[in-house]
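FAQ: What does the model actually see?

It sees only this:
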Amino acid sequence: MITLKSEEVTFLLQTLQLPERMRAILENGSLHPRIEISDDTAAELRELCLERYDVYGLDVTYQPTLEGKKLDTLIDKLFVG
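And it is asked to produce this:
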């Protein structure tokens, strides 16, 4: 299980194009200060974060953008190993 803070959930909801099932999981938990997600959901979210990072995570000089920094932190947090 992975625990996400409400601000992380809000960022994911606002930033990623989520499948409806995953959006529902996050929206249901967004009213709480922290939510726990399964390893499977974490792995799916991590993949979506990686895809978003590939497109929006770096600027033209290959420095992380503000969004990229947030995504990078979540990518590490969502790692299930």
